[in-house]
Amino acid sequence: MKVYVLQLGTLGANCYVIETAPAQCVAVDIGGNADKFLDFLKNKKLKLTKILLTHGHFDHIDGVEEVRLATGAEVYIHADDANKLESAEKSLATHIPGERFKAVKEYISTVGDSFINDGKLQFKVMHTPGHSTGSVCYICNDVIFSGDTLLRLSMGRTDFYDGSNGAMHNSLLRLSMLSGDYIVYPGHGEETSLEFERNNNPYMQRL
């Protein structure tokens, strides 16, 4: 599985592009800089078919609508975060002075744990609330795209309006109990591994 990473948007959130078949790909989170993202697809000669959102905060969705319109890609988000796609306030865009919110007009809502297929790959949607009520991780083969749930040696903030320390605790526990090791691609910062986080992340060690 070939994975590319781009830092996009005001906060430089990680956007991941995953090749799912020859000349075909999906993206996990597009936090802004739609032109840069589209240029990347053109240079790599990739067709984008799906956009998988780990949650609905503006720094992970800011480029989505422009890319959706340009590519026709389907957008997936958990039902509990879907309202953020159409609200500057709920997406937290109003927290950044001058941030211009771009509502996402069409999307597919997922519920609970489910699966999304694309090309030769299958992505398990693992509902991991805590950072937001609709936060998810996407698991594909030996890789976890963890959004702002699990970060290298840290975890996502839980002090926003729909965050929850208790829910985050349960979500990290679910991740820690997964069998075996995984490469972890977080929403911010450097990649890591699940085993490294089990052994070194202070939030996981408290579980």
Question: Can you characterise this structure?
Answer:
- This protein is of the alpha/beta class.
- 22% of the residues lie in helices and 32% in strands.
- It has six helices and 14 strands.
- The strands form three sheets. It has a six-stranded mixed beta sheet with strand order 1-2-3-4-5-6. The protein has a six-stranded mixed beta sheet with strand order 7-8-9-10-13-14.
- Helix 1 runs parallel beside helix 3.
- The chain is globular and about 45 Å long.
- 47% of the residues are buried.
- The model has no long low-confidence stretch (mean pLDDT 97).
Distance between the termini: 31 Å
SS content category: alpha/beta
Q: Rough shape?
A: globular
User: From the alpha-carbon coordinates, what is the Rg to the nearest angstrom?
Assistant: 16 Å
A few lines on this structure:
The chain is α/β, with parallel strands linked by helices. It has helices at residues 34-44, 58-61, 64-71, 165-176, 194-200, 202-205, and strands at 3-8, 13-21, 24-28, 47-52, 74-78, 108-110, 114-118, 121-127, 136-140, 143-147, 150-151, 154-155, 183-186, 192-193.
Keywords:
single chain, 207 residues, alpha/beta, six-stranded mixed beta sheet, 14 strands, globular
